[in-house]
Amino acid sequence: MSPLPDQxxxxxxxxxxxxxxxxxxxxxxxxxxxxxxxxxxxxxxxNAATVSARLRVTDASGAALERAAVEVRCGSTAINGIxxxxxxxxxxxxxxxxxxxxxAPGFADNVQTADLSSATTFTIALSVGSAxxxxxxxxxxxxxxxxxxxxxxxxxxxIEVPQSISIINQKEMEARNVITMNEALRYTPGVQADEFGVxxxxxxxxxxxxxxxxxxxxRDGMRFNSLSGKLDPYELxxxxxxxxxxxxxYGQAPPGGLINQVxxxxxxxxxxxxxxxxxxxxxxxxxxxTTGSFDKGQVxxxxxxxxxxxxxxxxxxxxDNRRLIAPSLTWHPSDRTNFTVLxxxxxxxxxxxxxxPANGTLYNTNPNGIIPVSTFLxxxxxxxxxxxxxxxxxxxxxxxxxxxxxxxxxxxxxINSQGRTLYGGGFDxxxxxxxxxxxxxxxxxxxxxxxxxxxxxxxxxxxxEHTVLFxxxxxxxxxxxxxxSGTVGADINIFHPVYGVTPITNLAPYSSQDSLLQQHGIYxxxxxxxxxxxxxxxxxxxxxxxxDLKDFLDPSxxxxxxxxxxxxxxxLTYLTDIGIAPxxxxxxSFLPNTGVDFFGKTFKPSDGKQIEGGVKFQPNTWTGFIxxxxxxxxxxxxxxxxxxxxxxxxxxxEVRSRGFEVEGVTSTWNGLLLHxxxxxxxxxxxxxxxxxxxxxxxxxxxxxxxxFLADYTVHRGKLNVLSGLGGNVGVRFVGTxxxxxxxxxxxxxxxxxxxxxxxxxxxxxxxxxxxxxSDKRYVATCSSLSACYxxxxxxxxxxxxxxx
Length: 804
Hints:
Layout: H1 8-18, E1 51-59, E2 69-74, E3 77-82, E4 88-93, E5 96-103, E6 110-116, E7 121-126, E8 165-169, H2 170-176, H3 181-184, E9 191-192, E10 206-207, E11 210-211, E12 217-219, E13 222-223, E14 236-243, H4 247-250, E15 257-263, E16 271-279, E17 283-293, E18 300-310, E19 321-334, E20 337-350, E21 384-399, E22 404-427, E23 434-441, E24 444-460, E25 464-488, E26 492-493, E27 504-530, E28 534-551, E29 559-574, E30 580-591, E31 606-617, E32 623-642, E33 645-667, E34 672-687, E35 704-713, E36 725-734, E37 737-738, E38 746-747, E39 750-761, E40 764-771, E41 779-784, E42 787-790, E43 795-803
Parallel strand pairs: 1-7, 12-15
Antiparallel strand pairs: 1-4, 2-3, 2-5, 5-6, 8-14, 9-10, 10-11, 12-13, 14-15, 16-17, 16-43, 17-18, 18-19, 19-20, 20-21, 21-22, 22-23, 22-24, 23-25, 23-26, 24-25, 25-27, 27-28, 28-29, 29-30, 30-31, 31-32, 32-33, 33-34, 34-35, 35-36, 36-39, 37-38, 39-40, 40-43, 41-42
């Protein structure tokens, strides 16, 4: 099959046509001078004996670079390794022509071709590169991550950061065909995804027992309100999870950790894909993504992606419709300078989650039987949830001759949502079939301005290496919201609902507010390495958080408060020559509490502090990464009720989360990719004015979670006829969790099975993915006996995609 002509115009038009957009571009493109690309099929002597090739990686002066990620590839055959202290890695492979990809933090990626037909030593020198906000990884390491900007803001290797960090990259998301960010995190230890079961509007999740959706979700290192907007995974190249207090680099955040969504950027090499999905619940989705360079020098690079989706869900009368388009443009005149402008627009149409009674969902004691998972308690012609969101951002880096790297990023985000619903309030008390319903509406308008500016410098003395970071960030989040209530004329039979006959009256706002959050943060960090083995990580930050509240219904309820907090992190890591790195760290966080108590005194921020210890393992002889950690995490200044005054709130509460996490990701040379993990999260309330809550589990937090995913692709060899055939199977276990603070009832554990099969042939992919393959009916959680939430039923999606 011949490729399209060498014109980016055709690639852009192929995607733009999908959305009815006329796109004009006209330029040819070729490889950059520093990158050699294989222009003809590689050759591999499959019957010849293996040879031992040694690859040596150096900087421009010839000094050895240790722990550089190396991939040697010929077609679907890939061998990975990590350089040792002398900058070398030994690779046993069959003779042939290979593409060699090398990357290391602080250096520009390098791709070369080499004829490795005999035992030889091959040297590749890396040039200095800027520390960009994201890492475009050239080497294909399967599901295995090596470096992250999120945990250090310096693109440090994960093994050198004294914190448990999980990364779900684009390859894994595509292999599992994830359709929400929650779904992307289902195999991540320490994270409880799909916290409230089927919820098409937002991403609800917890990290180490603490809710993260409001202040714990970021996009490209800048704040993103996940309880207002929602990003599609098709727009993301990875999702990064920082576990434990992370305020030292990000300001106010929950103590359990935070999530950073990394947006796809333009790349130099031309690539276009067009896809279609058909599946359960009449899912129909069309996607397109094209990227490349406008000019021969690859200075100007473009990307245009988007999707159109019309779909129902497992809940009756609840759609999952979306329109998305995201253009971006990069100016990359050299490895020292990079500037990217990113934009997107997204429209969503769906409806509310369902509040179902425990009797008939959690408990099989209802004489009328089990409440179906498809039950809808609203009014199909009246209920709605519409959201429009758009953003415009830039990110830029420049490396000066004196070694200082300056980074600046900014994003404006606009989110407008209009929603109203009739939700269930439990059985009416006279029957086990008729359910009370209440009216709720919540129109919102969000304007979010965020910026992050920092300077980084690496320098070396005789035995010491320093990576020094100074930064300032600012967030301006303006949320204008109303809350509306009304009355419903009659109850509804949950087993035999009749819609359209119940009058909805007395609609009126009971809340109308403008909430303005501003955060200024100044931070500094030094990563100090002594004799290449002992690594000290020291960081501190001063924050100024300003919260202004205007109440349009009752101006006397308006308030303004300013909170100041210093947070920090101190960590110690010992890096061995064989890739084992034990570490220990102490870190703190803060999270403001808005409002005043009964006496007009503003609430103090809740403070988090954690001690974490563990070990990371990044082997030199095979591609893999394993992290095992234990942690003790405490949050103080938690708001609790005043037993002497029911109108007052105290801040004498304290909660604790202790646990153990282990996660392993590996990629073998024969196409087997593995991702597994286990979480033990023991949460409890240590101080509370209500004795019934002391020593009780935090609600909606499973104590045990286990997951395992195996993905395999047949590579070329003796089974050439099956080359490109692959698939995966995964199992997820979620343990028992408490429904309320007093642990009056619990949600039982459940185990779910996922599977997929696919076939790749000459740029075409045909695949089928299934989640909850056995179609197990389960309750994800309950917030009361009248409000339980079903988990996701079986969902089967077929994909057809062509890349060129």
